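Same chain as my last thread, 224 residues:
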Amino acid sequence: MVDDDAAIRSLIKDKLDRAGFEVLTAASGQDAMHVIARHGLPHLAIVDLMMPGMDGFEFCQSVQQFSDLPIIMLSADHEEETIIRGIRYFAEDYITKPFSPSELLVRVERVLRRIGDFAYTLTPVMRVDDRVTVDFAHKQICVDGEMALLTPTETKLLYILMRNAGRVVTTDFLLRRLWPMQEVYEDALYVHIRHLRQKIESDPGEPRYIVTERGLGYTFGFRP
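reply #2:
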């Protein structure tokens, strides 16, 4: 929960705590990035738009460079243009202030139900198996004890595939989520797939983690 209003943070945390969620709070976009670096990515973020320093849109742009974190925007800005921008490019939902905490809870549950749970436990460093661990916040992957840096696009691509581990992720879905503001073609996606395989696979020519589903897309082949 990211909001510079302490009363709203407390109200939302109390409501979601009572519903069984574990809630971390931040008073600004910068603070939220530090929370993610310490605790790992959450399943969902509720983000206020109008904050000092890094505002809500800037936070969303930063965190979605390396993840596909589901976001609910919460704002006193009722302007149609702002709402459309938020939903089109960043958010799964947009709620205007003043708001009902019970309605917010229902919307949180609906988004999480639609997105589905992350296939792996969300921790600062996520363990895939005995060979591979991933630190999304710092864009790093450790394979057989060797650390390698990931580009933001590689990190976000791996996040999406791991979130859906064991399920086919279509090419169209990957293109839309990786480049929501651009028209990008499949060849560009394949370049990032190839580079990611070179970092994670013991034999990129016979991939075991990032598996091509011909005519459909890709599957992350390891499930916890």
